[in-house]
Amino acid sequence: MLAKRIIPCLDVKDGRTVKGTCFVNLREAGDPVELAKAYGEQGADELVFLDITASHEGRKTFTNMVTRVAEELSIPFTVGGGVQGADDVARLLDAGADKVSINSSALRQPELIDAISGRFGAQVCVVAIDARPVASGGWECYVNGGRIATGRDLFAWAHEAQERGAGEILFTSMQHDGSRCGFANAALAELSERLRIPLIASGGAGCMQDFADAFNLGKADAALAAGVFHFGDISIPQLKSFLNQQNIPVRL
Description:
Strand content: 25-35%
Radius of gyration: 16 Å
Number of helices: 11
CATH architecture: Alpha-Beta Barrel
Oligomer: single chain
Strand order of the largest sheet: 1-4-5-6-7-10-11-12
Shape: globular
């Protein structure tokens, strides 16, 4: 069995790492370069850097910040925010990213997934999906940092993204984000059943058992978190030791 991955996420706004609850009420969490270096040293398997207002503000990701973070890392590094075309992907890869995450732009122009996968390989293309439950029992996708509902169904969109060439799906439950009440394991398990590409769980980590549940109940391949790492509630070595004791394969 492949090792499950632990992925800290740097949500960056105005050059600083921030963390909110349900995508609002942001508070500062530190310098992204310093945090990235620390997580690499602690044994994180990958790092995700998201410029969370780039799409909403209609601008490109801070390339110089990406370069500074990449210089501190020897682990895979995914960057997202404001990516509108394959040339933006090339710019971020040149700046030091290993993968690029697309969210709003992918929903607005799904052929972007085909273009990125075709030009750079599926392993470069991470499709991030922000969604929340709806009264009918499904899940609806949102764009622009969770500001705008799209009417698109989570499961149908994730499957389309896979078929267009996405290498991974990063699913964030907006309802769980920052709540520390656990991941959306039922939705994760359904996604896992429908997909043949890796699935990253995001939104809701509050304790170490939440990560174990994301892997055992949600069938996720990786778990991403921010606040519990940024504010010192959980250390990555401590978490991996806990998961290892539960017979969950992790890279120690």
